[in-house]
Specification:
heterodimer, A: 138 residues, alpha+beta, four-stranded antiparallel sheet, 3 helices, 35% strand, B: 233 residues, T-fold, eight-stranded antiparallel sheet, two-stranded antiparallel ribbon, 6 helices, 26% strand
């Protein structure tokens, strides 16, 4: 396995200078970072949840060929129920976990929508879904 | 344009390509919730379930929904059975409500849209829909691509094991999820629920005999089975 990896690495090393020479003049990379805030969603009788995503959009242009990549770099929950001891406790536990989930999920540029057995019906998901759809259009 | 609202106990996303989402779509979902919710004591369905309202005296739409549930029990050899769950028609209502919303958008002249009600989708126009993997929520098990499709999935993964075999009373064995595609979401959802309840042994053969509906079944050992015309991208 190690040998194989080495072989690939050296092939890349040989190919690189040629590719660089051809692309050097025409390659252009533009990066835009935007914050997108989902709507405030009602978490039953506990209050509101609002999700904000920071999306980095990288547009790479090589000649006439343009590729766009979007990455969620951070997720914030500026509004969440925190007016009772219990909701503060629950949110301290749940929010870091939910944030991690989203950062892992990211985007799949080849898919318009995701289906599956009934998704979590939380206010977090609701605000997040709206923010994700908007983020796709950055 | 898209809108997301939390109705009927789940997030419902309506996305319209190149146009607005009409207000009356969500008014409709709220009406369905008021009428069919098993969590609202005053809903017609709750009154029927408590025996306070005879089905014959219920509104026309409620009678129509229970009537269709009866047909679906026949069509699924009893594996989709609202009587087995105390006259709870929720397994059909969600998909049916989306089908009716789709008809509203069609009447409004909306050319391309997709409605996602808690993971079950009805679309008009060409869409690529990822099916969440039952064991890895971040992974997509298969991408479905088609025009004017309903895509419903039943599985054990999102809300714990909530589908049971109405004959044995146990959670189905050997199966992780069933995804059904076809024209109507209500029917697709009932077929998915029934096939999932049949378990890994019966579901693949049963789904292979469906007319106008295709299936993707994920078995507990990780095997993924599809019917010949399943619209994989």
């Amino acid at each position: 396995m190690k040998k194989k990896l080495l072989a690939v690495a050296s092939a890349v090393a040989i190919a690189l200078p040629v590719a660089n020479a051809a692309a050097a003049a025409k390659k252009k990379i533009v990066t835009v970072t935007k914050k997108i805030t989902g709507p405030q969603a009602i978490a039953d009788r506990w209050g509101y949840v609002e999700v904000t995503l920071t999306v980095k959009k990288t547009t790479t242009t090589i000649g006439k060929h343009k590729t766009v990549a979007r990455k969620i770099t951070s997720i914030d929950v500026p509004v969440y129920p925190n007016h009772t001891d219990r909701s503060i406790f629950i949110n301290d536990q749940a929010l870091p976990w939910l944030k991690q989930e989203v950062l892992q999920a990211q985007f799949n540029p080849n898919i318009d929508m995701v289906g599956g057995a009934t998704a979590t019906s939380s206010a977090f998901t609701q605000s997040l879904q709206a923010a994700l759809i908007a983020a796709k259009k950055v | 344009m898209h809108r997301v609202e939390h109705v009927m106990g789940m997030p419902i996303v309506v996305e319209v390509r190149g146009g607005d989402v009409p207000d009356d779509v969500f008014d409709w979902f709220r009406h369905v919730d008021e009428t069919f919710s098993t969590y609202k004591e005053a809903s017609e369905v709750s009154r029927i379930r408590r025996g306070e309202l005879a089905l014959a005296c219920a509104s026309e739409e409620v009678r129509r929904v229970y009537g269709r549930c009866d047909e679906l029990r026949e069509a699924t050899s009893g594996f989709f059975d609202v009587e087995a769950v105390g006259l709870d028609p929720s397994g059909y209502v969600k998909g049916w409500a989306v089908d009716e919303a789709a008809a509203m958008l069609d009447r409004a002249g909306t050319a391309e849209y997709a409605i996602n009600a808690g993971g079950d989708i009805r679309s008009r126009g060409r869409w690529r829909i990822g099916i969440q993997h039952p064991l890895e929520p971040k992974a997509v098990a298969r991408v479905v691509e088609g025009t004017d499709l309903a895509v419903a999935t039943s599985g054990a993964y999102a809300r714990g094991e909530h589908v049971r075999d109405p004959y044995s009373g146990y959670a189905p064995a050997g199966i992780l999820s069933v995804t059904i595609t076809g024209s109507e979401l209500g029917t697709a959802d009932a077929y998915a629920t029934a096939a999932f309840a049949m378990g890994g042994h019966r579901a693949p053969n049963w789904t292979a005999r469906l007319r106008g509906y295709e299936a993707l079944t994920i078995l507990a050992d990780g095997r993924v089975l599809t019917t010949p015309r399943f619209p994989s991208a």
